[in-house]
Design goal:
5 helices, 142 residues, Beta Polymerase, domain 2, alpha+beta
Length: 142
């Protein structure tokens, strides 16, 4: 027959401790989110490299939940503001960066052609994205 909490030994009660299990689950979830955020930054750096090298973009800045760890979640996407991207390349650039990751949606914004409130947000919280280093030719083929 099942025991009530009052009938458990101190050792059994410590092993059961739901608060400890909850804290462990929260730590694991935080580690998963930290790893996901690191992967998102890696994709953002690769997108910056691609935008600058293949499409002649100037500055690339991340904004939104990627730049705010307390707002980053399992559903977060990658928001990038791209300055000086030639207009004729915009949609090809969107298609190229969209194909970089199956895990993350990537949104490109031209801060000169968006709502003033969004432009202010980009100016306030945007963080420049340093392009990923290009892999050596031997590594690309592997």
């Amino acid at each position: 027959m099942a025991k009530t909490a009052l009938e458990l030994t101190p050792e059994a009660l410590r092993a059961y401790n739901p608060a400890r299990r909850f804290e462990r689950a929260r730590r694991e979830q935080r580690l998963e989110l930290d790893a996901r955020r690191a992967r998102a930054w890696a994709v953002a750096r690769e997108a910056a490299r691609l935008l600058k090298q293949q499409f002649g973009a100037g500055r690339v800045a991340a904004f939104g939940s990627l730049t705010r760890p307390d707002h980053f979640s399992h559903w977060s996407d990658i928001d990038l503001a791209v300055v000086d991207l030639p207009p004729q390349h915009f949609y090809r650039a969107v298609a190229a960066v969209t194909g970089l990751s199956a895990e993350f949606e990537i949104d490109l914004v031209d801060p000169m052609n968006c709502r003033p409130s969004l432009r202010q947000r980009i100016e306030r919280e945007g963080q420049e994205v340093e392009p990923a280093a290009e892999l050596p030719a031997e590594t690309k083929e592997a």
